[in-house]
Amino acid sequence: xxxxxxSKLLNSAFHxxxxxxxxxxxxxxxxxxxxAALPPSRLPRHVAIIMDGNGRWANARGLPRSAGHAAGTxxxxxxxxxxxxxxxxxxxxxxxxxxxxxxxxxxxxxxxxLLLKYFNSEIxxxxxxxxxxxxxxxxxxxxEPQREAVVNAMARTKDNTGLKLNIALNYGGRAELVRAAQRxxxxxxxxxxxxxxxxxxxxxxxxxTRESPDVDLLxxxxxxxxxxNFLPWQTTYAEFIFDPINWxxxxxxxxxxxxxxxxxxxxxxxxVKTDASGEVSP
Length: 282
Fold this sequence. Notes:
Layout: H1 2-14, H2 25-30, E1 46-50, H3 54-60, H4 65-86, E2 90-97, H5 105-128, E3 132-136, H6 144-157, E4 164-171, H7 173-189, H8 200-204, E5 217-221, E6 239-243, H9 252-263
Parallel strand pairs: 1-2, 1-5, 2-4, 3-4, 5-6
């Protein structure tokens, strides 16, 4: 145990945010982007991704949908590693929604098997890299093997101080808001707080993402342009990017392209832009 803690401490000490982040020239050319470096100060603190298009990717190749989910897992590994390498503070991934239970038994079974396989195969590397794992959603509603795997992952990485990896499983955004309201109502009922005490900050403390900042950038693959009940509170001021490719094809180069587009956005948070003299800019 001592040597495991020492290893993570040393890894954290030497794993600093790079002065600039970039991808290889070949990767940049694959998405018609320059390979020039991007300063970390222009990166989002919190990226959320709706990993869509696994089934469409498989169907286009005459493969079962389960093959698409397996290919999507490979893309997932690379994006998590890139986020860690580039110094992203928090990464939230939409893996399985409460609505996904309505899919065929075969597809749900394949997804649950991949989930179990992923946590069993990746937990050592994630823990070694000081990644802090949080599951967003109703963990108790998962099958027992998967529930045990994710509970173990959260317990094992709870003291880690690196990338905050939030994985939405059995998650619904409206259900999260209702859950938060119920918890506050219980505190009011027990006399712990008054209704007037409830504000944004107190409400956010009841959300699954209370340890992460608000989402700065939301990416959805496969061309669909909707939230699908994912982090409705946390994405209030997020920048949205809808990438037309399917999730198994999403790689570091596509990710960097999204980060560059985000860096070029003018985020005003409801205000107006002014120039150096204080005049309102166009």
